[in-house]
Amino acid sequence: MSAYGKHMLLRTYGRRKGHRLSPRKTRLMDELLPRLRLDLEAPPPASLAKLFARPVSQIWLEIGFGAGEHLAWQAAANPDIGFIGCEPFINGVAALLGEIDTDGLANIRIWDGDAREVLDWLGDASLDRVFILYPDPWPKTRHHKRRLISPQTLDALARVMKPGAQLRIGSDIDDYVRATLEAVFAGGHFEWLA
To answer: Is 120 labeled as catalytic in the residue annotation?
Structure first.
């Protein structure tokens, strides 16, 4: 069982699929995604740098990359960094694959499912930076339990992040920012640097 117990029963994201994919994006999902998708059935390599064809100096994770604009920009700006992107929304994955294909980005690996599965899979102290940008705020009180930022997620992040690694969280929902700060401070794993 994972660090989350029964986390697979409670989704922290909404729908998996939106509008129909274009023929190009369908082809990329069929041909490119299998080459870039993490294999969570196999144990993680001793060094995550082995996931990439070219040498990388650090590994950064983005949870919930949306359509991949930020992830693709970071990968292009930092070719010596290996990136892992997690996004369950198929249309977002397809959009990122389009950018990877167009820009020839070779330093991105993808998980097209629940990011918590990747956190369970990763070895201790394996990440140098984590981005969680504008996660679903689940604004209704009865849905707050679905929020990604939780004590369990923060514990898992603390385990997989190297000492001194950065956790960057962004939200424009005041209630979510407040709840996130409360959870971060209560967990005691992270130091506020802003």
So the answer is: no
